[in-house]
Specification:
Number of helices: 14
Structural class: alpha/beta
Distance between the termini: 12 Å
Mean pLDDT: 92
Shape: globular
Low-confidence stretches: none
Helix content: 25-40%
């Protein structure tokens, strides 16, 4: 019997949180699981294992003081658990938990870090001045570092000096059958089956680039006033995006669905999934929406889209000046990340995104081809394969 302690701040509404829960559910019976989180009441996703809490209250917005207090309490708790020596491995998800995992000391059991984003790609001050420098100092002390994509692994080795022999890639795994079941559940939503709907799913925040999608969609609406866009997710950019929708005159065509415990039922009623991210570790929503049989358009973010949609190409290649009709979906250049005034003209990357959206609206044969390809490709990321890789590592 193996015993694992997973470390993560929360099990609320994020890709890393869902990935961790999926792994626990697929673990065999001879693996016992505990999960250490900030608060015992935080769980948006089904999971297996015992929840251990450091008893920090739930907050929608984390202040620096809250994060520091939670970080210290987490280190103290992990150190105590490590002294008890009952775990074979300590697997941490996300940067704060990763650093706490290392600072809590090396006792019995392997220290394994799961790195969920391409750190050097982030433009936030937090990653530039805190996470990045700390990763260079502390990540080498881990027994193994698991990257979410090949590109993220390269980033860790090339930009943070990590030992390539201790760094490996394990893609996220997905319960494809469960996703398909949930997609067939009743959805009392705003989606009208007689109209054309684009959908995007993800936290409303800087890396996801949803404001570029809104600008591109405004061009689509000019040509097709009866087209609609559903945005699923919550986050700090929600007010900005809602204001932008009004300013650029597409308020009647955009629906903010918020966080949905089962987004797949709504996804199943839409026509095309669009993923406008600026950077990712991999991009959970891409595979999940492909599993629902939606044709997809994704920007060529670092890293993940190319590894999923164009697996036979060099994952280090990035398209800049054209739309790429890849094997499993459409890839467009990554947008700039600039926050434009509503009256400013669209940048070329936004125009490419709009063109790809219009192409899938107009070309039913292409849409059906990519829908079929999506389902086929999603099966390559079945959770069973991912868990087998984790067990081999353990």
């Amino acid at each position: 019997m193996k015993k694992i302690l997973f470390l993560i701040s929360t099990l609320r509404g994020g890709g890393a949180e869902r990935a961790l829960c999926n792994i626990t559910l697929a673990m065999p019976d001879n693996v016992e699981v505990d999960i250490l989180v900030n608060s015992i009441s935080e769980a948006d996703y089904p999971h297996k294992g015992n929840i251990i809490s450091i008893n920090m209250p739930i907050k929608d917005h984390f202040t620096m003081m809250y994060q520091l207090k939670a970080f210290i309490k987490r280190i103290i708790k992990i150190r105590k658990l490590k002294k008890e020596g009952k775990y074979d491995a300590y697997i941490s998800f996300m940067d704060s938990a990763n650093i706490a995992n290392i600072l809590s000391g090396k006792k019995d059991g392997k220290i394994i870090l799961s790195v969920r984003t391409t750190i050097s790609q982030s433009k936030s001050w937090k990653y530039k001045y805190i996470v990045g420098p700390l990763a260079k100092i502390f990540y080498p002390f881990a027994d193994y570092i698991v990257a979410l994509s090949k590109g993220t692994r390269d980033d860790l080795v090339e930009n943070f000096g990590l030992n390539k022999n201790k760094t490996l890639t394990i893609y996220n795994g997905y319960d494809i059958n469960k996703i398909n079941e949930k997609a067939l559940e009743h959805d009392d939503s705003i989606v009208d089956g007689g109209k054309f709907y684009f959908i995007t799913v993800g936290r409303l925040c800087e890396p996801k680039g949803q404001w570029h999608l809104l600008r591109a969609f405004s061009r689509v609406v000019k040509s097709y006033p009866e087209s609609f866009l559903v945005i699923c997710g919550k986050g700090p950019y929600e007010d900005m995006l809602k204001k932008m929708v009004s300013e650029i005159g597409i308020k009647d065509n955009v629906f903010f669905a918020g966080f949905l415990s089962n987004p797949f039922a709504m996804v199943n009623r839409c026509d095309v999934f669009v993923f406008p991210s600026l950077y990712e570790g991999f991009g959970n929503a891409l595979i999940e929406n492909m599993a629902c049989g939606l044709p997809v358009i994704a920007t060529d973010f670092r890293y993940g889209a190319r590894e999923v949609l164009a697996p036979d190409t060099d994952y280090k290649f990035q398209c800049f000046d054209k739309i790429e009709y890849a094997e499993y979906g459409i890839i467009t250049p990554v947008c700039s990340g600039k926050k434009y005034e509503s009256a400013q003209p669209l940048e070329k990357e936004e125009l490419f995104l709009a063109e790809a959206m219009i192409k899938l609206m107009e070309d039913r044969e292409l849409r059906e081809k990519y829908a079929s390809k999506s389902m086929k490709r999603a099966n390559d990321f079945a959770i069973k394969k991912t868990v087998e890789q984790w067990l081999q590592l353990l």
